[in-house]
Amino acid sequence: MLILKDFKLITSKDNSLIKLISKLQTSKKYRYENGLFVLEGLRICKDALDTGTMFDKLIISKSALEKLRTEIEILSENANECIEIPDYIFEKLSDTKSPQGVLAVCKMLKNNTEKIDINGRYLAFENVSDPSNLGAVARTCEALGVSGIILSNDGLDPYSPKVLRASMGTMLRIPLFILDDFAKNLASLPHKKYACVVDRDALSIKTADFKNGSIVIIGNEANGITNETKAVSDFEVTIKMTGKAESLNAAAAAAIAIWEMMK
User: Fold this and answer.
1) Beta carbons of 235 and 192 less than 8 angstroms apart
2) pTM of the entire structure?
């Protein structure tokens, strides 16, 4: 039988930890300066347990501690420190409309591009701006067995609360790589690179010969792939469409591209 760990009580909104968490919830810069991110919600925290993610801090509201004792007992076993706070303070920290009262502060994994498998098949997303798109693409990558996701540094932060929720925990499970100089860093990788473009004259993605050591690149929802990234790509591929539709939602285009790469 698990025994609930001792919970340190914090009752002031001016406490340094409370201020830290508040900034981690809203600032990409602050997350990377501190190497920390926040998981909020019972389900995503439970998902994190399956990945071996260790909680640096587990923060629980007073009401959650009373209602979710069994679940919190399990979570607390994976936490370096456990803290209880009043409900009204938790509500100020929360990034959701209906907070469950469960939040964890975790350390980011090291962004080691040397771990990119030379024979792997990857999805690269340049300047993604919609958390729902990134979350949906991440889930598709996991479902279809993609080796990992490559992101540009100037796009969405995969550790932002909205992206973590949209990915339903996938961001904690799938290998993730962030490139400081997207086009230049991609060019240094030995993989064949396929830039997905809206161009009827480009190679049909159905006829592309994807082999191990491939990267499919999806661009920004509004602007597509930059010219710099196109220049370092080996092929420009397109999803041939009928009717009057000129383009697809980025997540839908990515799903089709991933299917073609992995089939």
Assistant:
1) yes
2) 0.88
